[in-house]
Amino acid sequence: DPGPAAGSSLALCPAVCAAAGLRVGDRTPSATGPTAGNRPVCARRRPAAEPVREAHKEGRRMAEEARDLSKELRLLRERTAQDSLSLPDKHLLKFLRWKSEGTRAYDRLTEFIRWRRECRWMDNPEPLLLGKSEVIRKVLMSGVLACPANVRGRRGEKLVFGRFRFNDLSSWSPQDLCRTIVYIVETALISEETQNNGLLVLHDLSGITQNNISIQVPKLLLPILLGKYPVKVKGIFIYNAPWWFQGPLQIVKLLMPSKIRSRLRTISSLSEVHEMIDPSLLLVEHGGTTEYKPEEWIGTQMALEAGGAEDDYLVKCLQT
């Protein structure tokens, strides 16, 4: 019945408009004319509502993940208790955030504890703590490894830089270098963000000589990091490798699982990492703005350990 209301404003309340996906105040043609009678009514809401729906969906997904993680944490806690292990939840969560499905977290955790207790050199001659290991401090002061604070990849990965031209194997052993790398991984895994998003490694081989490398390092290190620790290696970039390094690299690849091998790339230009790393976050020597001062990083870590941060390291799992 085209009565007087047909050509007048429709007084729809905002709640009705919102429920219908409309917006108050837009105009629509009147029944009495094609355009001249346009009057303010509700119009279809524009895609501005889409981010809200996506946010709600993401919120529901995160809530479901939190419930699942809580359930898996309870089960892992019960399993470790049956083994007479009483571990803080913060350490159990490191393994669950690595892999939560099935028994993989439990298997990796028990394998880690067994290996660390039996390993004769990882915590000898001193514990794997910066404040108690002079040789680890010495390796880190050389700059062979850099792990700047608050520097991450585009997807939240922790960035670690290797500069093996500073690897003076006449001053420390391959085992000392491996212990230092494991220490850096330990510190990185304190962060929940790193537990979830993993590590990105950029090895700059500029200026390297054959005296800077030892095949013992990957032989000792890869089974540890890829078989014992709850660490996600998201990418390894080998930059500026000399021609003679291709032989050792092929041996290293044979020691890697196929998944990690597929994430290792040799690059000739740093632009090839920009998809995963904001170029401004690279070290100054690589054209970025990150200034890494090893003495400051060491001082910060030693202060944290003195304040009780060593309780956050996985070595504490051995003391239960």
Descriptive terms for the model:
320 residues, alpha/beta, five-stranded mixed sheet, two-stranded antiparallel ribbon, 7 strands, disordered N terminus
Work out the helicity level.
Answer: 40-55%
Give me the secondary-structure category: alpha/beta
Number of helices: 11
Helix and strand run: HEEHHHHEEHHEHEHHEH
Q: What do these coordinates show?
A:
Helix content is 42%, strand content 12%. The strands form 2 sheets. The chain has a 5-stranded mixed sheet. Strand 5, helix 8 (216-227) and strand 6 form a beta-alpha-beta unit. Mean pLDDT is 85; it is low at 1-24 and 26-36. The chain is built from 11 helices and 7 strands. With 320 residues, it is of the alpha/beta class. Helix 2 crosses helix 3 (89-98), helix 3 (89-98) crosses helix 4 and helix 5 crosses helix 6 (174-188). It is globular, with a radius of gyration of 28 Å. The N and C termini lie far apart (82 Å). It has helices at 14-20, 49-82, 89-98, 104-118, 134-142, 174-188, 192-197, 216-227, 246-254, 258-261, 294-306; strands at 22-28, 39-44, 145-146, 158-162, 199-204, 233-239, 264-267.
Describe the secondary-structure layout.
Blueprint: H1 14-20, E1 22-28, E2 39-44, H2 49-82, H3 89-98, H4 104-118, H5 134-142, E3 145-146, E4 158-162, H6 174-188, H7 192-197, E5 199-204, H8 216-227, E6 233-239, H9 246-254, H10 258-261, E7 264-267, H11 294-306
Short description:
With 320 residues, the protein is of the alpha/beta class. It has eleven helices and seven strands. Helix 2 packs across helix 3 (89-98).
